[in-house]
């Protein structure tokens, strides 16, 4: 590799190389924790990032490399070329064009690569402050990535593009980006297991993770205290993704606009056994989805808050919720303490909604939707109108559900359990006199439509 740009100086790894750090000076037993081996991109004036190496470590080739046991710092992939149509500058390496704006710490292109047991901090890039990977099959495990940045781009910690990636047991904390503070990925197949995402930030979307047009399996991760200015404090996933999330924990994440824990648009999502607590947003404190097909099973959402949809907010979606628990979520000044849905098809079975609060629809607020509720329990939810459910237009079928002790804050008991209106202003459902806010009941078939309200069968319990 020859170049006239001094910032192209890098640890250029030959294709197929296995590189291990952690040996003591003069040789001996390898221990990367005790014997810290540092690779630094601070090649110019000390402490001045503007003359740092574009990439501390660079690997390009069909075979791939292994990087194991290093501390990698001070790379700065900020290569800009206004004369190039892409806006970025490139270096030719063995016939391959390498983007100088990718991978401040490590950049891999093609091959089968293993990056493990490393610490990456203080690196920056437009794409992948800590690590960037293009194409190839990549295993990234047991690394710590902290304080890396992609301030004007994507993937403060890690950026992947058009590859197959397995990310296990990494710690990503305090990384920043415009999109994907911790990780950003596009056109990839990703397996993301047992990682910790904490305190990562995005000035636009995806405090913890951003994914586009990818297939993602996300299991057993912890997302805490991540934030995004607009969308997806924990995760943002957008446009033609297939997402399966299992047994993850989202706590204390925030988004100024939508999806404190998770934001998803135009995807197919399966969520199983996840816990979302204490997340906040303007809409969808726990989860916000738009134009999605969603299947949620055995999840717990508690203590999340938003203006609409304290626990979950869904717009124009097809949603199937089974065996979920939503408790203590709030939409104090808006609708849907537990769930808010607008213009979708919703099937809720065997869910429990308790202790949620809102201005309208303490448990559920639904607008212009087709809803089927079977074997659900709504108890102790509170709202100005519709302590249990607030429904505005739409068609609702409610079977074998228990409504208990749902409250309308004002003393109008018949509006405590279910509230139905075809206007923007309250019009209470004419419930039977015996049905009061603190009365439990099972509705075998309760049909609500924009033209009529009728109880086909009522069985007191």
Identify low-pLDDT runs: 422-461
**SS-based structural class?**
mainly beta
Biggest pleated-sheet summary: 30 strands, mixed
Q: N- to C-terminal separation?
A: 80 Å
C-alpha geometry: elongated
Percent of residues in helices comes to under 10%
Gyration radius (Cα, Å) is 26 Å
Number of strands: 58
User: How confident is the prediction overall: mean pLDDT?
Assistant: 90
Strand portion = over 45%
Which short descriptors sum up this protein?
single chain; 461 residues; mainly beta; 30-stranded mixed beta sheet; 15-stranded parallel beta sheet; disordered C terminus
Could you please describe the fold and organization of this structure?
The relative contact order is 0.06. The strands form 6 sheets. The protein has a 30-stranded mixed beta sheet that branches. Strand 8 (90-93) and strand 9 form a beta hairpin. It has 461 residues and is mainly beta. Residues 422-461 have low confidence and may be disordered. Helix content is 0%, strand content 50%. The protein is built from no helices and 58 strands. It is elongated.
Short structural summary:
The chain has 461 residues and is mainly β. The chain contains no helices and 58 strands.
Topology:
Layout: E1 11-13, E2 18-20, E3 38-40, E4 57-60, E5 66-68, E6 71-73, E7 76-77, E8 90-93, E9 96-99, E10 106-109, E11 112-116, E12 119-121, E13 124-125, E14 131-134, E15 137-141, E16 144-146, E17 149-154, E18 158-161, E19 164-168, E20 171-173, E21 176-179, E22 183-186, E23 189-193, E24 196-198, E25 201-205, E26 209-212, E27 215-219, E28 222-224, E29 227-228, E30 235-238, E31 242-246, E32 249-251, E33 254-255, E34 262-265, E35 268-272, E36 275-277, E37 287-290, E38 293-297, E39 300-302, E40 312-315, E41 318-322, E42 325-327, E43 330-335, E44 339-342, E45 345-349, E46 352-354, E47 357-360, E48 364-367, E49 370-374, E50 377-379, E51 382-385, E52 389-392, E53 395-399, E54 401-404, E55 407-408, E56 418-421, E57 441-448, E58 453-460
């Amino acid at each position: 590799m020859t170049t006239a740009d001094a910032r192209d100086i890098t640890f250029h790894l030959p294709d197929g190389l296995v590189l291990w750090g952690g040996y003591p000076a003069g040789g001996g037993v390898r221990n990367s924790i005790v014997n810290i081996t540092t690779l630094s991109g601070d090649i110019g004036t000390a402490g001045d990032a503007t003359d740092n190496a574009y990439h501390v470590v660079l690997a390009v080739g069909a075979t791939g490399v292994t990087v194991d046991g290093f501390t990698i710092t001070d790379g700065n992939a900020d290569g800009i070329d206004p004369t190039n149509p892409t806006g970025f500058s490139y270096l030719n390496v063995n016939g391959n064009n390498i983007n100088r704006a990718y991978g401040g710490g490590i950049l891999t292109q093609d091959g089968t690569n293993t990056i493990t047991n490393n610490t990456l901090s203080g690196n920056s890039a437009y794409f992948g402050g800590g690590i960037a990977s293009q194409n190839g099959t990549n295993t990234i495990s047991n690394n710590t990535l902290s304080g890396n940045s992609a301030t004007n781009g994507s993937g403060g910690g890690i950026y992947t593009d058009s590859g197959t990636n397995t990310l296990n047991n990494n710690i990503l904390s305090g990384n920043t980006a415009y999109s994907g503070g911790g990780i950003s990925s596009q056109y990839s197949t990703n397996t993301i297991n047992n990682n910790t995402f904490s305190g990562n930030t995005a000035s636009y979307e995806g405090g913890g993770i951003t994914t586009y047009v990818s297939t993602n399996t996300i299991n057993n991760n912890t997302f805490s205290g991540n934030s995004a200015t607009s969308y997806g404090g924990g995760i943002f996933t957008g446009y033609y993704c297939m997402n399966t999330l299992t047994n993850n924990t989202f706590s204390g994440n925030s988004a100024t606009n939508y999806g404190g824990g998770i934001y998803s648009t135009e995807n197919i999502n399966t969520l199983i056994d996840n816990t979302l607590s204490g997340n906040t947003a303007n809409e969808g404190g726990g989860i916000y989805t738009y134009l999605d097909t969603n299947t949620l099973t055995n999840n717990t959402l508690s203590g999340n808050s938003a203006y609409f949809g304290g626990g979950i907010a869904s717009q124009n979606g097809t949603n199937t919720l089974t065996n979920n628990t939503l408790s203590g979520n709030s939409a104090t000044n808006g609708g849907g303490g537990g769930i808010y849905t607008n213009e979708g098809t919703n099937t809720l079975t065997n869910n429990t909604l308790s202790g949620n609060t809102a201005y309208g629809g303490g448990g559920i607020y639904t607008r212009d939707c087709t809803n089927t509720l079977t074997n659900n329990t709504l108890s102790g939810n509170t709202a100005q109108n519709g302590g249990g459910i607030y429904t505005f237009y739409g068609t609702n079928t409610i079977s074998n559900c228990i409504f208990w002790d749902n409250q309308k804050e004002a003393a109008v008991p018949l509006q405590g359990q279910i509230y139905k209106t075809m206007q923007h202003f309250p019009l209470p459902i004419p419930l039977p006199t015996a049905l009061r806010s603190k009365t439990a009941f099972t509705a075998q078939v309760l049909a609500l439509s924009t033209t009529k309200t009728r109880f086909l069968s009522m069985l007191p319990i």
